[in-house]
Q: What sequence folds into this?
């Protein structure tokens, strides 16, 4: 049974995740791309983009490494408070399946880097539960959110999710709000100092921020027919699976569920109505859907149903990403 694969220990699961990345993203990671989006705000993104534009082998290596690092970030986040005991690797595989359908060779670098830091923002939000270091943890969550915005300006909407997370974990006070504001501004201030010291000119950074901000606009989704059907089916399955997670939940589990509920609903709205930030919406949709589907497979009595859902999503993602091999 495929679900039993994720109960094992050792390096087998890591090899399986690597295999999933190669199979799902194989048609995209080996593509030498030129990014046509606005100039990156952070120099590191420009460096990574230049590496993926060098040659096929470097492009594949960088993208595989980033996807592995991002998967590790998701694992670390789910490991806190034993969020998904025995099902963390299943959630990672489902996340990779969902994201692979909607990402393209152009937005893997920025979106995956941004999501990695956003995941650690959520990780620090989870840590605020029964902690005596709430202000510092909120600062770290906001700081990582700010870094994710520098990598992909579409992640600026993450500020809303950050505020919602602080409210859900019942740590919203005027002190934590101030900590959050300082945390959000800190990466931009560090980058401002870097431009001043390195180039003695901060105008390139200001122009990059302005161009990225102007590129944010409302607009309906523009996916192909298969992607629309796929996201619709995943949404419906996840929506009904989420109700199953209400039972048997501890206090911390209920808080985490509420945060993922919020991420799931807002991600779908972003995908449908804000075309310029769809990369952020897809990443959120991927992690929230993967969480609820993995949680559902953990709680449902009819294991064959969970098996069928996982296998169907896996086959659909592989078929879509590799259909050119069968033409």
A:
């Amino acid at each position: 049974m495929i679900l039993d694969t994720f109960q094992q220990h050792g390096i087998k699961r890591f090899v399986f995740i690597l295999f999933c990345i190669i199979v799902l993203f194989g048609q995209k990671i080996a593509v030498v791309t030129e990014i046509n989006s606005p100039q990156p705000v952070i120099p590191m993104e420009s460096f990574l983009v230049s590496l993926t534009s060098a040659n096929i082998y470097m492009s594949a290596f960088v993208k595989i490494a980033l996807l592995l690092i991002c998967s590790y970030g998701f694992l670390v986040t789910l490991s806190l408070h034993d969020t998904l005991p025995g099902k963390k690797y299943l959630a990672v595989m489902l996340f990779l399946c969902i994201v692979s359908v909607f990402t393209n060779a152009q937005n893997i670098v920025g979106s995956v880097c941004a999501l990695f830091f956003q995941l650690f923002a959520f990780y620090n939000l989870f840590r605020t539960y029964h902690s005596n270091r709430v202000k510092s943890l909120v600062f770290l969550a906001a700081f990582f959110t700010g870094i994710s915005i520098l990598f992909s300006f579409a992640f600026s909407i993450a500020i809303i999710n950050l505020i919602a997370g602080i409210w859900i974990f019942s740590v919203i006070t005027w002190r934590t709000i101030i900590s959050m504001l300082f945390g959000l501004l800190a990466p931009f201030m560090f980058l401002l100092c870097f431009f001043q010291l390195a180039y003695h000119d901060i105008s390139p950074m200001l122009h990059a921020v302005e161009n990225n901000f102007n590129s944010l606009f409302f607009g309906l989704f523009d996916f192909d027919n298969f992607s629309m059907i796929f996201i619709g089916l995943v949404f419906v399955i996840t929506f009904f699976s989420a109700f199953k997670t209400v039972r048997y939940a501890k206090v911390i589990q209920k808080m985490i569920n509420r945060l993922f509920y919020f991420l799931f609903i807002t991600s779908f709205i972003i995908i449908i109505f804000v075309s310029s930030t769809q990369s952020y919406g897809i990443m959120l949709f991927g992690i929230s859907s993967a969480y609820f589907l993995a949680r559902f497979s953990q709680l449902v009595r009819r294991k064959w149903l969970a098996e069928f859902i996982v296998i169907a999503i896996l086959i659909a993602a592989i078929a879509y990403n590799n259909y050119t091999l069968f033409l």
The mean pLDDT is 79. The first helix runs from residue 12 to 29. DSSP finds 13 helices and no strands in the chain. The two ends are 31 Å apart (CA to CA).
